[in-house]
């Protein structure tokens, strides 16, 4: 009987599977039928027939990286907000979510999706504004776009002025948007669009709003995400308002569990760490973004307590390859030593299977395994900074960059070939995003000037 014809054959790459049962194939062979990996093994003997073959000699194949916490639209403050202090929503003089028009949101989101794909991420977990438009727009580029609008009941138009005013009307509106997004978008684009419930943060959600998020989670079965202990402002606000720490508040309302993905977790006490670990919560560790603000999460202590670590880029850039390097090195700095349990394979697992587990997708994504979805990234190792090739994983984490990505396959389809999108006009995306950002900054600067004039 003739062998079945594969739709795609990737031949000759060094394969880093992220599957502990067979972590490296050198050289390897990956076969894809439809949207699944149907063949995985050493590149020995005659190759099976395939409709398309990628000669991947000189390349390293990895699973698509999982960027589990990002705000694609916030590339609008790239290169500026990093030097201004805290997050844009809390900072005067920069564009804010409530300032973004629908067209601007789509333009910036498409830029974020393109950047993520070119840096090797096949799934992004996004939250910001106008998600009913941005998720489909990002998915059109071939990426897996998960997300939710910001769920909150604070008046975000006042937070950057250090005013925390809560409104039932705002809370109901953001929850209605989230539920509508679930009903209209979840599972669309052949399953590449997904929805989670993004409670913005414990300081921007009142206790009652968090309880409503819990109720919606229980009714829909969706997972939840939030920013947690990302700033002293958040911790102090919750302490003053509720008489407890943010993790204690989430625990009391029933959100602190293994279905919660929390970004940052920087300003946590010993008791917070114990509580988070006991819950088995997933932590979206953002080493580069947090270091930009002179902070870092206590990852070693969180992991020892039982927290499940993942990696993410948050704002400003989407290079998950670089983030693995930051995660490894910042963890070693905290520990003050190089140890056997904080190695390149540690952060690689955080960026692949760790992210898949946090998203509840570990049976479909996160490793190159027969039967799983075919989300595959090929990096070109025929470059001076990646030669000599002795340890491909060591080179990936210590010296590679997202810019080394050559081809990206999502759901069995080549969406990036030779570093260029196969589904979108890149020049158009860049032009539209530049125009949107310029308009947003023009309005933000005008508003800041108006505010300064009123103070005189």
UniProtKB/TrEMBL annotation:
GO terms for molecular function: hydrolase activity, acting on carbon-nitrogen (but not peptide) bonds. InterPro entries: Amidohydro-rel, Metal-dep_hydrolase_composite, Metal_Hydrolase, MTA/SAH_deaminase. Keywords: Hydrolase. Pfam families: Amidohydro_1. SUPFAM superfamilies: Composite domain of metallo-dependent hydrolases, Metallo-dependent hydrolases. It comes from the Bacteria. Residues 61-415 form the Amidohydrolase-related domain. Belongs to the metallo-dependent hydrolases superfamily. ATZ/TRZ family. This is Amidohydrolase family protein.
